[in-house]
Amino acid sequence: MSLQIEFEQGRRALIVRLKGELDHHTADVVKARMEEAIAKEHTHHVILSLKDLSFMDSSGLGVILGRYKQITSKGGKMVVCDVSPAVYRLFELSGMFKIVSIQDNERNAMSSLEVAL
Questions:
Q1: What is the phi-psi region of residue 100: left when phi exceeds 0, alpha when psi lies from -120 to 50, beta otherwise?
Q2: The STAS domain covers which part of the protein (predicted)?
Q3: CB of 113 within 8 A of CB of 11?
Q4: pLDDT tens digit sequence for 10-67
Q5: Of 21, 109, 112, 117, which one is least surrounded by beta carbons within 10 A?
Q6: CA distance 78 to 42
Q7: The pTM is what?
Q8: Cα separation of 77 and 112, whole Å?
Q9: Rounded to whole angstroms, how far apart are CA atoms 65 and 97?
Q10: CA distance 95 to 98
């Protein structure tokens, strides 16, 4: 299975929705597309929606951590939402939740950033 990436630019938050599998085959594409979208000067925060992400490996964790560093270096925040049980477990085992904030859904993620679409 491949991966689909959808971007929605709000006022100050970029919503990134991933659908499919984020693994070593798709990580470079996700990295490049997210870097490009975040580099736009009006992007201050990122909401990463994983609602339709069916699989993620350590390559995916690396992509997320790298984009987290990219957005926080600009003074922004990253929030992950709609995480499946399998991906949640991967985040838990890796310690990612100590770094990245998690919310139940996009609305809560947006509220946690105090940003309106």
A1: beta
A2: 3-117
A3: no
A4: 877 999 999 999 999 999 999 999 999 988 767 889 999 999 999 999 999 999 999 9
A5: 117
A6: 15
A7: 0.91
A8: 10
A9: 11
A10: 6
